[in-house]
Amino acid sequence: MSLSIQHLNKTYGSGAQRRQVLKDIDLEIGDGEFVAIVGRSGCGKSTLLRLLAGLDREHEGRLLHDGVPITGTDLRRGVVFQDHRLFPWLTVAGNVMLPLAELPLPAAEKHARVLERLARLGLADHVDAYPKAISGGMAQRVAIARALVNRPPVLLLDEPFSALDAITRGRLQQELLGLWRDEGLTVVIVTHDIEEAVLLAQRVVVLDRSVRRIQSVDLAHPRRRGDPAFGALHDRLLAEFHDDLAPTA
């Protein structure tokens, strides 16, 4: 088992200002699984991802990676955010090199890993470019390359494609699927887009402070939005949100 979440609770503030954002979360994510987490803004999905990444250590309950408690960040878990967070004074290659800086590897091997990752994501011709000189889609590719350059088994993504245009988003979704298939990654993606979740994931977790529903997506890749089975799953998940808006007698 790759990631284990057991009776997880997370609150912010205290006293009258206390607000619970995650309530008694239980979730097991297996090795090589692709899981999407969906929910309304403010439902706790990005908070959950930060906890899995080890960026936030204040919580109740247990978070485990391969049976070991998550107590901080770890190079075995790559993280990609909505904004690429590239350092503007470093080149594309320099940004991707950062996770390797403290690893006891020969410089030649580090350089080879960087070039390998950039080539895999179609950036071989932009190694020496600076972030201001590349598009938003390219910058997000660089962020993915940086997250994977040290070959972590787990990739965590927080709304990674939401700021991109539809064509670029579609291309990056397919590239992410290719990385997952080819490298056996465990992938957890947070998204507000139910269609994206059904397009990519093996399971979709609907979050609303607690786990409201876990939906298996038993559709072969590549998936097509026009497929009736795809549409039925999409509508079933969307209904989870519409139910809250239904008028009461």
From TrEMBL:
<keyword id="KW-0813">Transport</keyword>
<keyword id="KW-0472">Membrane</keyword>
<dbReference type="Pfam" id="PF00005">
    <property type="entry name" value="ABC_tran"/>
</dbReference>
<comment type="similarity">
    <text>Belongs to the ABC transporter superfamily.</text>
</comment>
<dbReference type="InterPro" id="IPR050166">
    <property type="entry name" value="ABC_transporter_ATP-bind"/>
</dbReference>
<dbReference type="GO" id="GO:0016887">
    <property type="term" value="F:ATP hydrolysis activity"/>
</dbReference>
<keyword id="KW-0547">Nucleotide-binding</keyword>
<dbReference type="InterPro" id="IPR003439">
    <property type="entry name" value="ABC_transporter-like_ATP-bd"/>
</dbReference>
<feature type="domain" description="ABC transporter">
    <location>
        <begin position="3"/>
        <end position="234"/>
    </location>
</feature>
<dbReference type="InterPro" id="IPR003593">
    <property type="entry name" value="AAA+_ATPase"/>
</dbReference>
<protein>
    <submittedName>
        <fullName>NitT/TauT family transport system ATP-binding protein/sulfonate transport system ATP-binding protein</fullName>
    </submittedName>
</protein>
<dbReference type="InterPro" id="IPR017871">
    <property type="entry name" value="ABC_transporter-like_CS"/>
</dbReference>
<dbReference type="GO" id="GO:0005524">
    <property type="term" value="F:ATP binding"/>
</dbReference>
<dbReference type="InterPro" id="IPR027417">
    <property type="entry name" value="P-loop_NTPase"/>
</dbReference>
<keyword id="KW-0067">ATP-binding</keyword>
<keyword id="KW-1003">Cell membrane</keyword>
